[in-house]
TrEMBL record:
Residue ranges of domain Recombinase in the record: 167-278
Name of the protein in question: Site-specific DNA recombinase
Keyword Coiled coil assigned: yes
Record keywords, A-Z: Coiled coil
Annotated ranges, domain Resolvase/invertase-type recombinase catalytic: 11-159
The organism's taxonomic lineage, starting at the top: Bacteria, Bacillati, Actinomycetota, Actinomycetes, Micrococcales
Pfam families for the chain: Recombinase, Resolvase
Annotated TM spans: none
GO molecular function, one term: DNA strand exchange activity
Length: 489
Protein backbone atom coordinates (compact mmCIF):
# COMPACT_ATOMS: atom_id res chain seq x y z
CA UNK A 1 0.00 0.00 0.00
CA UNK A 2 1.38 3.38 -0.95
CA UNK A 3 1.77 6.21 1.57
CA UNK A 4 -1.10 8.11 -0.04
CA UNK A 5 -3.34 5.07 0.41
CA UNK A 6 -2.58 4.79 4.14
CA UNK A 7 -5.38 5.77 6.52
CA UNK A 8 -5.18 9.38 7.75
CA UNK A 9 -4.28 9.75 11.45
CA UNK A 10 -7.14 10.18 13.90
CA UNK A 11 -7.81 13.83 14.71
CA UNK A 12 -7.81 13.78 18.49
CA UNK A 13 -8.73 16.09 21.36
CA UNK A 14 -7.12 15.93 24.79
CA UNK A 15 -9.27 16.56 27.85
CA UNK A 16 -7.67 17.37 31.21
CA UNK A 17 -9.39 18.23 34.48
CA UNK A 18 -8.58 18.62 38.16
CA UNK A 19 -11.23 19.03 40.85
CA UNK A 20 -9.35 21.36 43.16
CA UNK A 21 -6.46 23.71 42.50
CA UNK A 22 -6.27 25.98 45.55
CA UNK A 23 -2.93 27.45 44.55
CA UNK A 24 -4.08 28.10 40.98
CA UNK A 25 -0.84 26.66 39.60
CA UNK A 26 -2.48 24.22 37.09
CA UNK A 27 0.28 21.69 37.83
CA UNK A 28 -2.17 18.77 37.78
CA UNK A 29 -3.78 19.53 34.42
CA UNK A 30 -0.44 20.30 32.77
CA UNK A 31 0.93 16.91 33.86
CA UNK A 32 -2.19 15.22 32.47
CA UNK A 33 -1.76 17.00 29.14
CA UNK A 34 1.89 15.95 28.84
CA UNK A 35 1.06 12.27 29.44
CA UNK A 36 -1.93 12.40 27.09
CA UNK A 37 0.23 13.91 24.33
CA UNK A 38 2.76 11.11 24.79
CA UNK A 39 -0.03 8.53 24.46
CA UNK A 40 -1.42 10.21 21.32
CA UNK A 41 2.04 10.17 19.78
CA UNK A 42 2.41 6.44 20.46
CA UNK A 43 -1.00 5.84 18.86
CA UNK A 44 -0.09 7.94 15.84
CA UNK A 45 -3.00 10.31 16.52
CA UNK A 46 -2.87 13.99 15.60
CA UNK A 47 -3.75 16.28 18.54
CA UNK A 48 -5.82 19.11 17.08
CA UNK A 49 -7.32 20.55 20.30
CA UNK A 50 -6.78 20.56 24.06
CA UNK A 51 -9.68 21.19 26.46
CA UNK A 52 -8.90 21.95 30.12
CA UNK A 53 -11.28 22.47 33.07
CA UNK A 54 -9.14 23.48 36.02
CA UNK A 55 -10.43 23.46 39.62
CA UNK A 56 -13.85 22.04 38.62
CA UNK A 57 -15.40 18.89 40.07
CA UNK A 58 -17.03 16.44 37.68
CA UNK A 59 -19.16 14.96 40.46
CA UNK A 60 -20.92 18.05 41.82
CA UNK A 61 -22.53 18.76 38.47
CA UNK A 62 -20.95 22.20 38.10
CA UNK A 63 -20.73 23.49 34.52
CA UNK A 64 -17.58 22.34 32.72
CA UNK A 65 -17.35 24.76 29.80
CA UNK A 66 -14.35 23.10 28.15
CA UNK A 67 -15.91 19.63 28.42
CA UNK A 68 -19.06 20.96 26.72
CA UNK A 69 -16.92 22.59 24.02
CA UNK A 70 -15.17 19.27 23.42
CA UNK A 71 -18.49 17.43 23.00
CA UNK A 72 -19.61 20.12 20.55
CA UNK A 73 -16.42 19.55 18.55
CA UNK A 74 -17.23 15.82 18.42
CA UNK A 75 -20.78 16.54 17.22
CA UNK A 76 -19.43 18.77 14.44
CA UNK A 77 -17.04 16.02 13.37
CA UNK A 78 -13.94 18.11 14.13
CA UNK A 79 -12.39 15.31 16.18
CA UNK A 80 -12.70 11.54 16.01
CA UNK A 81 -10.73 10.55 19.09
CA UNK A 82 -10.56 11.57 22.75
CA UNK A 83 -7.57 11.17 25.04
CA UNK A 84 -7.77 11.55 28.83
CA UNK A 85 -5.57 10.61 31.76
CA UNK A 86 -8.29 8.36 33.26
CA UNK A 87 -11.98 7.79 32.65
CA UNK A 88 -12.83 9.66 35.87
CA UNK A 89 -11.38 12.82 34.29
CA UNK A 90 -14.17 12.61 31.69
CA UNK A 91 -16.98 11.72 34.07
CA UNK A 92 -17.65 10.72 37.67
CA UNK A 93 -21.42 10.44 37.34
CA UNK A 94 -23.34 7.81 35.43
CA UNK A 95 -25.58 10.47 33.88
CA UNK A 96 -22.55 12.09 32.23
CA UNK A 97 -21.35 8.71 30.94
CA UNK A 98 -24.68 8.01 29.24
CA UNK A 99 -24.42 11.26 27.29
CA UNK A 100 -20.91 10.27 26.16
CA UNK A 101 -22.10 6.76 25.23
CA UNK A 102 -24.82 8.16 22.98
CA UNK A 103 -22.41 10.56 21.33
CA UNK A 104 -19.73 7.89 20.81
CA UNK A 105 -22.23 5.51 19.21
CA UNK A 106 -23.51 8.10 16.73
CA UNK A 107 -20.14 9.65 15.87
CA UNK A 108 -17.95 6.52 16.19
CA UNK A 109 -15.52 8.23 18.56
CA UNK A 110 -12.48 6.32 19.80
CA UNK A 111 -11.51 6.92 23.44
CA UNK A 112 -8.12 6.17 24.99
CA UNK A 113 -6.82 6.82 28.51
CA UNK A 114 -3.31 6.89 29.95
CA UNK A 115 -4.06 4.79 33.06
CA UNK A 116 -7.36 2.97 32.32
CA UNK A 117 -6.68 1.73 28.79
CA UNK A 118 -9.13 1.79 25.89
CA UNK A 119 -12.78 2.72 26.36
CA UNK A 120 -14.74 0.91 23.66
CA UNK A 121 -18.28 2.32 23.68
CA UNK A 122 -19.19 0.65 20.39
CA UNK A 123 -19.89 -2.76 22.00
CA UNK A 124 -22.16 -3.93 24.80
CA UNK A 125 -19.17 -5.29 26.73
CA UNK A 126 -17.24 -2.06 26.37
CA UNK A 127 -20.21 -0.03 27.55
CA UNK A 128 -20.65 -2.35 30.53
CA UNK A 129 -17.00 -1.92 31.53
CA UNK A 130 -17.32 1.86 31.20
CA UNK A 131 -20.42 1.86 33.38
CA UNK A 132 -18.66 -0.26 36.00
CA UNK A 133 -15.75 2.19 36.09
CA UNK A 134 -18.18 5.12 36.35
CA UNK A 135 -20.12 3.42 39.16
CA UNK A 136 -16.89 2.77 41.06
CA UNK A 137 -15.81 6.41 40.63
CA UNK A 138 -19.21 7.64 41.79
CA UNK A 139 -19.12 5.34 44.83
CA UNK A 140 -15.64 6.60 45.77
CA UNK A 141 -16.77 10.20 45.66
CA UNK A 142 -19.93 9.48 47.67
CA UNK A 143 -17.91 7.56 50.24
CA UNK A 144 -15.45 10.45 50.50
CA UNK A 145 -18.32 12.88 50.98
CA UNK A 146 -19.78 10.72 53.75
CA UNK A 147 -16.41 10.67 55.54
CA UNK A 148 -16.07 14.45 55.23
CA UNK A 149 -19.61 15.01 56.51
CA UNK A 150 -19.02 12.61 59.41
CA UNK A 151 -15.82 14.43 60.31
CA UNK A 152 -17.56 17.80 60.18
CA UNK A 153 -20.37 16.51 62.37
CA UNK A 154 -17.88 15.20 64.92
CA UNK A 155 -16.03 18.51 64.93
CA UNK A 156 -19.32 20.40 65.27
CA UNK A 157 -20.42 18.30 68.21
CA UNK A 158 -17.01 18.75 69.84
CA UNK A 159 -17.00 22.49 69.20
CA UNK A 160 -13.68 22.22 67.36
CA UNK A 161 -12.19 24.65 64.84
CA UNK A 162 -12.90 23.52 61.27
CA UNK A 163 -10.15 25.42 59.48
CA UNK A 164 -10.24 28.11 56.81
CA UNK A 165 -8.99 31.68 56.67
CA UNK A 166 -7.75 33.12 59.96
CA UNK A 167 -10.80 34.59 61.71
CA UNK A 168 -10.40 38.20 62.80
CA UNK A 169 -9.92 38.32 66.56
CA UNK A 170 -8.00 35.02 66.73
CA UNK A 171 -4.53 33.78 65.92
CA UNK A 172 -3.91 31.33 63.09
CA UNK A 173 -5.67 28.11 64.03
CA UNK A 174 -8.69 29.97 65.37
CA UNK A 175 -8.32 28.86 69.00
CA UNK A 176 -6.26 31.64 70.62
CA UNK A 177 -7.50 35.23 70.99
CA UNK A 178 -5.59 38.20 69.61
CA UNK A 179 -6.33 40.80 72.33
CA UNK A 180 -6.18 43.93 70.15
CA UNK A 181 -8.44 42.48 67.49
CA UNK A 182 -10.77 41.08 70.14
CA UNK A 183 -11.18 44.59 71.55
CA UNK A 184 -12.03 45.86 68.05
CA UNK A 185 -14.84 43.29 67.77
CA UNK A 186 -16.15 44.08 71.26
CA UNK A 187 -16.01 47.85 70.73
CA UNK A 188 -17.59 47.69 67.28
CA UNK A 189 -20.38 45.48 68.66
CA UNK A 190 -21.11 48.02 71.39
CA UNK A 191 -21.00 50.88 68.89
CA UNK A 192 -23.50 49.16 66.58
CA UNK A 193 -25.88 48.60 69.49
CA UNK A 194 -25.45 52.24 70.49
CA UNK A 195 -26.69 53.29 67.07
CA UNK A 196 -23.48 53.90 65.14
CA UNK A 197 -23.42 53.06 61.44
CA UNK A 198 -21.28 50.28 60.01
CA UNK A 199 -19.84 52.70 57.48
CA UNK A 200 -18.83 55.15 60.21
CA UNK A 201 -17.17 52.44 62.30
CA UNK A 202 -15.36 51.03 59.24
CA UNK A 203 -14.10 54.49 58.31
CA UNK A 204 -12.78 55.00 61.83
CA UNK A 205 -10.99 51.62 61.82
CA UNK A 206 -9.31 52.47 58.51
CA UNK A 207 -8.20 55.84 59.85
CA UNK A 208 -6.64 54.03 62.81
CA UNK A 209 -4.89 51.69 60.33
CA UNK A 210 -6.68 48.63 61.70
CA UNK A 211 -6.95 46.03 58.95
CA UNK A 212 -8.95 42.84 58.39
CA UNK A 213 -7.36 39.41 58.93
CA UNK A 214 -6.37 39.41 55.23
CA UNK A 215 -4.76 42.86 55.47
CA UNK A 216 -7.49 44.71 53.58
CA UNK A 217 -9.27 47.92 54.55
CA UNK A 218 -12.65 47.60 56.18
CA UNK A 219 -15.95 48.08 54.38
CA UNK A 220 -19.40 48.12 55.92
CA UNK A 221 -20.01 44.65 54.43
CA UNK A 222 -16.76 43.07 55.72
CA UNK A 223 -17.39 44.57 59.16
CA UNK A 224 -20.94 43.21 59.18
CA UNK A 225 -19.70 39.74 58.24
CA UNK A 226 -17.30 39.76 61.20
CA UNK A 227 -19.81 41.10 63.73
CA UNK A 228 -22.59 38.60 62.94
CA UNK A 229 -20.36 35.50 63.35
CA UNK A 230 -21.61 33.13 66.08
CA UNK A 231 -17.92 32.39 66.76
CA UNK A 232 -17.69 35.81 68.47
CA UNK A 233 -19.87 34.41 71.28
CA UNK A 234 -18.09 31.04 71.30
CA UNK A 235 -20.93 29.30 69.45
CA UNK A 236 -20.96 26.68 66.67
CA UNK A 237 -23.60 26.97 63.95
CA UNK A 238 -24.61 25.30 60.69
CA UNK A 239 -25.60 27.04 57.47
CA UNK A 240 -25.11 30.72 56.73
CA UNK A 241 -24.68 33.23 59.56
CA UNK A 242 -26.47 35.95 57.58
CA UNK A 243 -29.98 34.52 58.04
CA UNK A 244 -32.34 36.19 60.56
CA UNK A 245 -31.57 35.21 64.15
CA UNK A 246 -34.69 33.06 64.61
CA UNK A 247 -33.65 30.93 61.60
CA UNK A 248 -30.01 30.45 62.67
CA UNK A 249 -29.16 26.95 63.89
CA UNK A 250 -26.78 26.95 66.87
CA UNK A 251 -25.50 23.44 67.56
CA UNK A 252 -23.37 23.97 70.63
CA UNK A 253 -20.52 25.66 72.45
CA UNK A 254 -17.12 26.02 70.85
CA UNK A 255 -13.73 25.22 72.33
CA UNK A 256 -12.32 28.67 71.53
CA UNK A 257 -12.85 31.67 73.85
CA UNK A 258 -15.66 34.12 73.12
CA UNK A 259 -14.94 37.76 72.19
CA UNK A 260 -18.32 39.09 73.40
CA UNK A 261 -21.07 37.71 75.61
CA UNK A 262 -23.92 35.84 73.97
CA UNK A 263 -26.55 38.52 74.64
CA UNK A 264 -24.42 41.17 72.95
CA UNK A 265 -23.73 38.98 69.93
CA UNK A 266 -27.39 37.99 69.57
CA UNK A 267 -28.47 41.65 69.76
CA UNK A 268 -25.92 42.63 67.10
CA UNK A 269 -26.92 39.68 64.91
CA UNK A 270 -30.64 40.48 65.22
CA UNK A 271 -29.99 44.14 64.37
CA UNK A 272 -27.76 43.50 61.35
CA UNK A 273 -29.79 40.63 59.84
CA UNK A 274 -33.26 42.11 60.32
CA UNK A 275 -35.29 41.72 57.08
CA UNK A 276 -36.21 45.41 57.21
CA UNK A 277 -32.57 46.44 57.16
CA UNK A 278 -31.18 47.34 53.76
CA UNK A 279 -27.97 45.82 52.47
CA UNK A 280 -25.09 47.65 54.20
CA UNK A 281 -23.26 48.41 50.95
CA UNK A 282 -26.34 50.20 49.64
CA UNK A 283 -26.89 52.23 52.78
CA UNK A 284 -26.12 55.92 52.40
CA UNK A 285 -24.21 57.52 55.25
CA UNK A 286 -25.56 61.06 55.87
CA UNK A 287 -22.99 63.84 55.62
CA UNK A 288 -24.95 66.34 57.72
CA UNK A 289 -26.26 66.33 61.28
CA UNK A 290 -29.98 66.91 60.72
CA UNK A 291 -30.54 65.15 57.39
CA UNK A 292 -33.43 62.68 57.82
CA UNK A 293 -33.91 63.69 61.47
CA UNK A 294 -35.33 67.24 61.42
CA UNK A 295 -38.91 67.88 60.33
CA UNK A 296 -40.58 70.63 58.31
CA UNK A 297 -42.53 73.12 60.43
CA UNK A 298 -44.39 74.76 57.53
CA UNK A 299 -48.16 74.75 57.27
CA UNK A 300 -49.64 72.52 54.62
CA UNK A 301 -52.31 73.48 52.05
CA UNK A 302 -55.14 72.48 54.40
CA UNK A 303 -53.73 74.33 57.36
CA UNK A 304 -52.14 71.24 58.90
CA UNK A 305 -48.45 71.04 59.92
CA UNK A 306 -46.34 69.52 57.14
CA UNK A 307 -44.00 67.40 59.28
CA UNK A 308 -42.09 66.30 56.19
CA UNK A 309 -38.56 64.91 56.44
CA UNK A 310 -35.74 67.41 55.99
CA UNK A 311 -32.95 66.37 53.60
CA UNK A 312 -29.70 68.06 52.61
CA UNK A 313 -29.25 69.29 49.07
CA UNK A 314 -26.79 71.49 47.19
CA UNK A 315 -28.01 74.76 45.73
CA UNK A 316 -25.63 76.26 43.18
CA UNK A 317 -25.40 78.42 40.10
CA UNK A 318 -28.36 78.99 37.79
CA UNK A 319 -28.52 80.61 34.34
CA UNK A 320 -29.73 83.84 35.93
CA UNK A 321 -27.17 83.69 38.77
CA UNK A 322 -24.07 81.99 37.26
CA UNK A 323 -21.55 83.22 39.84
CA UNK A 324 -23.11 81.62 42.92
CA UNK A 325 -20.91 79.11 44.77
CA UNK A 326 -22.76 75.82 45.50
CA UNK A 327 -23.94 75.75 49.12
CA UNK A 328 -25.51 72.96 51.19
CA UNK A 329 -29.09 73.64 52.28
CA UNK A 330 -31.69 71.71 54.22
CA UNK A 331 -34.92 71.36 52.29
CA UNK A 332 -38.37 69.94 52.94
CA UNK A 333 -38.28 66.66 51.02
CA UNK A 334 -42.08 66.37 50.87
CA UNK A 335 -43.28 69.68 49.38
CA UNK A 336 -40.15 71.91 49.19
CA UNK A 337 -41.77 74.27 51.70
CA UNK A 338 -38.50 75.74 52.86
CA UNK A 339 -34.73 75.79 52.68
CA UNK A 340 -32.15 76.82 55.26
CA UNK A 341 -28.35 76.89 55.30
CA UNK A 342 -26.84 73.61 56.53
CA UNK A 343 -23.54 74.71 58.19
CA UNK A 344 -25.09 77.42 60.39
CA UNK A 345 -28.02 75.20 61.34
CA UNK A 346 -25.79 72.24 62.26
CA UNK A 347 -23.36 74.42 64.24
CA UNK A 348 -26.19 75.94 66.26
CA UNK A 349 -27.83 72.58 67.03
CA UNK A 350 -24.48 71.05 68.02
CA UNK A 351 -23.89 73.78 70.59
CA UNK A 352 -27.41 73.33 71.99
CA UNK A 353 -26.94 69.56 72.35
CA UNK A 354 -23.46 69.98 73.86
CA UNK A 355 -24.96 72.13 76.64
CA UNK A 356 -27.87 69.74 77.11
CA UNK A 357 -25.72 66.66 77.68
CA UNK A 358 -23.84 68.45 80.47
CA UNK A 359 -27.12 68.24 82.41
CA UNK A 360 -27.24 65.01 84.47
CA UNK A 361 -30.95 64.56 83.75
CA UNK A 362 -30.36 64.64 79.99
CA UNK A 363 -27.25 62.49 80.27
CA UNK A 364 -29.42 59.84 81.95
CA UNK A 365 -31.24 59.42 78.63
CA UNK A 366 -27.99 58.15 77.14
CA UNK A 367 -27.18 55.80 80.02
CA UNK A 368 -28.11 52.12 80.25
CA UNK A 369 -31.57 51.33 81.60
CA UNK A 370 -32.43 48.73 84.20
CA UNK A 371 -33.31 45.11 83.50
CA UNK A 372 -35.76 44.11 86.29
CA UNK A 373 -35.54 40.42 85.32
CA UNK A 374 -36.95 40.65 81.81
CA UNK A 375 -33.73 39.55 80.15
CA UNK A 376 -33.44 36.39 82.23
CA UNK A 377 -37.07 35.47 81.56
CA UNK A 378 -36.46 36.06 77.84
CA UNK A 379 -33.39 33.81 77.86
CA UNK A 380 -35.34 31.04 79.57
CA UNK A 381 -38.17 31.29 77.03
CA UNK A 382 -35.70 31.25 74.14
CA UNK A 383 -34.15 28.03 75.46
CA UNK A 384 -37.60 26.41 75.68
CA UNK A 385 -38.47 27.40 72.09
CA UNK A 386 -35.16 26.09 70.75
CA UNK A 387 -35.79 22.75 72.48
CA UNK A 388 -39.29 22.65 70.96
CA UNK A 389 -37.85 23.10 67.46
CA UNK A 390 -35.32 20.33 68.09
CA UNK A 391 -38.05 17.98 69.34
CA UNK A 392 -40.28 18.78 66.36
CA UNK A 393 -37.41 17.96 63.99
CA UNK A 394 -36.82 14.68 65.85
CA UNK A 395 -40.52 13.81 65.60
CA UNK A 396 -40.47 14.47 61.86
CA UNK A 397 -37.35 12.33 61.35
CA UNK A 398 -39.06 9.52 63.26
CA UNK A 399 -42.19 9.82 61.06
CA UNK A 400 -44.33 10.78 64.06
CA UNK A 401 -45.63 13.87 62.23
CA UNK A 402 -46.07 14.59 58.52
CA UNK A 403 -44.50 17.44 56.53
CA UNK A 404 -47.59 19.66 56.81
CA UNK A 405 -47.71 19.46 60.61
CA UNK A 406 -43.93 19.84 60.82
CA UNK A 407 -43.99 23.08 58.83
CA UNK A 408 -47.00 24.50 60.67
CA UNK A 409 -45.48 23.78 64.08
CA UNK A 410 -41.98 25.04 63.31
CA UNK A 411 -43.37 28.19 61.65
CA UNK A 412 -45.42 28.95 64.77
CA UNK A 413 -42.46 28.37 67.10
CA UNK A 414 -40.14 30.50 64.96
CA UNK A 415 -42.59 33.41 64.99
CA UNK A 416 -42.52 33.45 68.79
CA UNK A 417 -38.77 32.87 68.81
CA UNK A 418 -38.28 35.92 66.56
CA UNK A 419 -40.39 38.01 68.97
CA UNK A 420 -38.31 36.84 71.93
CA UNK A 421 -35.05 37.52 70.08
CA UNK A 422 -36.27 41.04 69.25
CA UNK A 423 -37.13 41.77 72.90
CA UNK A 424 -33.78 40.43 74.08
CA UNK A 425 -31.96 42.49 71.44
CA UNK A 426 -33.81 45.64 72.50
CA UNK A 427 -32.99 44.91 76.13
CA UNK A 428 -29.31 44.47 75.33
CA UNK A 429 -29.24 47.67 73.28
CA UNK A 430 -30.87 49.54 76.16
CA UNK A 431 -27.98 48.38 78.34
CA UNK A 432 -25.33 49.92 76.08
CA UNK A 433 -24.22 53.46 76.84
CA UNK A 434 -23.59 55.91 74.03
CA UNK A 435 -19.88 56.78 73.72
CA UNK A 436 -20.05 60.19 75.43
CA UNK A 437 -21.41 58.77 78.70
CA UNK A 438 -18.67 58.73 81.31
CA UNK A 439 -16.60 61.45 79.64
CA UNK A 440 -15.17 64.17 81.90
CA UNK A 441 -16.91 66.78 79.76
CA UNK A 442 -19.83 65.12 77.92
CA UNK A 443 -20.48 68.30 75.94
CA UNK A 444 -16.97 68.43 74.50
CA UNK A 445 -17.03 64.66 73.96
CA UNK A 446 -20.19 65.15 71.90
CA UNK A 447 -18.55 67.89 69.80
CA UNK A 448 -15.50 65.69 69.22
CA UNK A 449 -17.51 62.54 68.40
CA UNK A 450 -17.95 61.17 64.85
CA UNK A 451 -21.02 62.33 62.97
CA UNK A 452 -22.94 59.06 63.39
CA UNK A 453 -22.50 59.28 67.19
CA UNK A 454 -23.68 62.90 67.18
CA UNK A 455 -26.75 61.94 65.18
CA UNK A 456 -27.61 59.15 67.61
CA UNK A 457 -27.24 61.47 70.59
CA UNK A 458 -29.39 64.06 68.83
CA UNK A 459 -32.16 61.52 68.18
CA UNK A 460 -32.13 60.57 71.85
CA UNK A 461 -32.26 64.01 73.48
CA UNK A 462 -33.69 66.59 71.07
CA UNK A 463 -36.45 67.05 68.53
CA UNK A 464 -35.77 69.56 65.76
CA UNK A 465 -38.33 71.34 63.59
CA UNK A 466 -37.28 73.85 60.94
CA UNK A 467 -39.67 76.77 60.36
CA UNK A 468 -40.13 78.83 57.19
CA UNK A 469 -38.40 82.23 56.97
CA UNK A 470 -40.48 85.21 58.06
CA UNK A 471 -40.17 86.73 54.60
CA UNK A 472 -38.46 85.94 51.30
CA UNK A 473 -34.72 86.49 51.39
CA UNK A 474 -34.53 86.54 55.20
CA UNK A 475 -31.06 85.88 56.66
CA UNK A 476 -30.42 82.77 58.76
CA UNK A 477 -31.70 83.02 62.33
CA UNK A 478 -31.96 80.63 65.27
CA UNK A 479 -35.63 81.62 65.44
CA UNK A 480 -36.17 79.28 62.49
CA UNK A 481 -35.48 76.28 64.75
CA UNK A 482 -38.14 74.89 67.05
CA UNK A 483 -36.31 72.62 69.51
CA UNK A 484 -38.03 70.24 71.93
CA UNK A 485 -36.33 68.15 74.62
CA UNK A 486 -37.07 64.43 74.61
CA UNK A 487 -38.82 63.24 77.79
CA UNK A 488 -36.67 62.73 80.86
CA UNK A 489 -36.67 59.64 83.06
Amino acid sequence: MSRTQQQAPVRAAIYARISRDRAGERAGVEQQERECRALAERLGWEVVAVYVDNDISAYKGKPRPQYRAMLDAVRRGDVGGLVAWHTDRLHRRLVDLEELVTLAETKHVEIRTVTAGDVDLSTAGGRMNARILAAVAQQEVEHLRERVQAKRKTMLEAGAYRGGKRPFGYRKGGMVVRPREAEVVARASRDVLAGRSLKGIARELNQQRVRTSSGAEWTSLSLRDVLIRPRNAGLIHTGKASVPTAELTIVGRAQWPALVDEDTWRAVHALLTAPSRRHPNHKTDPSWLLSGIARCGATGPEGQPCGGVIRATSIGATPSRPNITPTAHYRCAEFAHLTVLVPKTDDYVRQVVAEMVRDARVLALLSPSGDDGRMERGRERRAVLVRQIEQTEADYDADLIDARRFKAKTDRIRVELEEVETLLAEGTRAGVALPIVGARDPGQAFLDAPLDVQRQVLRTVLGVQIMPAAYRGAAWSSDRLALSRVGER
